[in-house]
Amino acid sequence: MNGFELSKSCERSLPCCTDGGLLLSAKAPQVSGVRVQLEMQALWQQFDQLGTEMIVTKSGRRMFPTFQVRISGMDPSAEYVLLMDFIPVDDKRYSSSWLVAGRADVAAPSRMHFHPDSPAPGAQWMKQTVSFDTLKLTNNLLDDNGHMILNSMHRYQPRFHVVFVDPTPNSHLNAYKNFCSFFFPETRFMAVTAYQNHRITQLKIASNPFAKGFRNTDSNSWEGNATP
Amino acid sequence: MNGFELSKSCERSLPCCTDGGLLLSAKAPQVSGVRVQLEMQALWQQFDQLGTEMIVTKSGRRMFPTFQVRISGMDPSAEYVLLMDFIPVDDKRYSSSWLVAGRADVAAPSRMHFHPDSPAPGAQWMKQTVSFDTLKLTNNLLDDNGHMILNSMHRYQPRFHVVFVDPTPNSHLNAYKNFCSFFFPETRFMAVTAYQNHRITQLKIASNPFAKGFRNTDSNSWEGNATP
DNA sequence: CTCTTGACACCTAGGTGCGAACTT
DNA sequence: AAGTTCGCACCTAGGTGTCAAGAG
C-alpha cells in the first residue's frame, strides 16, 4: 500500500506511453516520469454514468465539465507543450435512442488544441491546475477559429498529450521519445446539437454556474404543480 | 531629413536609450533598432490637453485610455520581455485646484509590471498591438496583487521597457546593452481617488464603453421631458 | 420524422462613475 | 474642508439551456 500515491493517477489516466512493445525506458526522462490527475473527477463520473453529452455548435461551445488536470513529475526547468485531441470511441453513428444507426461518417479533420500557455517550463505547469477552458467544440467543418471539429451523434474520447520541447539539434529524429499521452475513460462523451437525455440536461443545469437561470429555485416544486 | 521614417516614432516616443553620453551603438543589435508607436494617440492627446486623471483604488483600477503600443524593428526570433513602470513627473503634491501643496510624499514602492505574455519572441510582439489592459493602479501601499502602487494627487509618467533576453552565458555583465526604454509625454496623468476636473469625467464617460451607463442618451432631452 | 439552427432570457464575471458616508 | 472609501445601478462581454422554426 505504500509508494502508490503517484501510481494512483496512472491507474486512472491509462498512459499511452506503452507504445506497443516499447519499454517505458524508451521515453526521454523528461516525460517518462510525468503523472497526470484529472480534476473534478467525481463530477465527470456522475456525468459518465448517465452518458455524457457535449453540445456542439457552429460558433463553438465550451465543454462542461471543463477538462482540467494536475501534473507532477515534470522536469521543472524543461520546456513542455500541452495539447488535447479527440478520438472517435467507435466507428458508429447513433440515433436519438442511442441505437447504432450506421457506420461513422467520413472522418472529420482532426485537430489538435494547444494549451494557450504552451510552451512553458515544467515548473509552471505543475504549480497549479492546468485548465482547457478555452477549448470549444464545433460541428462546422469549415471552422476557422481553431475549434475542435466533431461529428454530432458520435462518441469521442478526449486525449491529453505532454510534449517535451527538446532543444537538442536533430531532436526530431527522436520525437517519439519526447511525448506522452493520457486519457481518462470517464471523460468520454457524445457530441450532440441538442441534449438527448433529460437527466444530462438537469445535471448540467445543476452543476454549471452559467446555467443557474434554469435551476428550480422552488425547493417545494414537487407540490402544487397547478395545471390549467 | 531623409531616413526619418523610422525615427518618427522616436520623436514621439523619446527613447531613453541615449543613456547620458553613451552612443546608441553601445546597445545590443536586438534592441537598438526597436521602434514603438503609441496606439489611440489622438485620444491620449485629447485627455492630455485637459490634464489626464487616473483613478486609483484600494482593489486596483485599470487605466483609461489603456496603454497600448505597436512595435517594429525587433529581431523576430529573439526573446523579449516587455514591461512598464511609472515615474513621478515632479516631486510636488497637488491640491484639488492643482496648486502645489507641498513636497512629494515618501516615494512609494516602485513596481514593475511585466506584460503577461513575457517572455515571447519578437515576431509575436510585432504581429499585433501589445496591450497593457490588465495593468491596475492602486493607492494601497500594502497591495499584494501585483498592482502598480501610486500616490494620489501626484503626477506620473508611464514608461515602457523592451528587454532582450540574452541567452549568452554571463549576459548580465552586459545587461545595460540589452534593454531600451520609451515614454510618451501625452500619457502623463494625475493619480486621483475621485475626479477633480469635470471635463475629464465627461471625456471618460464619452469614450470608455464601460461608462456608457452615464451617457446622456437623450439626444432630444430638451423636448418632452414629461413630469408627473 | 430526426436533427440542426438562431434568437432569446437569464446567468457569471467584472469594468464604470455616482454619491453618501467616512476619515483626517 | 478636503480627500478617501464603499455599495450601488448600469454597463460590456460572453457562457447557459429553451423554444420555435428550419432543413433534410
From TrEMBL, chains A, B:
Domain called T-box: residue spans: 38-216
Subcellular location: Nucleus
GO biological process terms on file: anatomical structure morphogenesis; cell fate specification; positive regulation of DNA-templated transcription
Molecular functions (GO terms): DNA-binding transcription factor activity, RNA polymerase II-specific; RNA polymerase II cis-regulatory region sequence-specific DNA binding
Keywords noted in UniProt: DNA-binding, Nucleus, Transcription, Transcription regulation
Keyword Disulfide bond: no
Name this protein carries in UniProt: T-box domain-containing protein
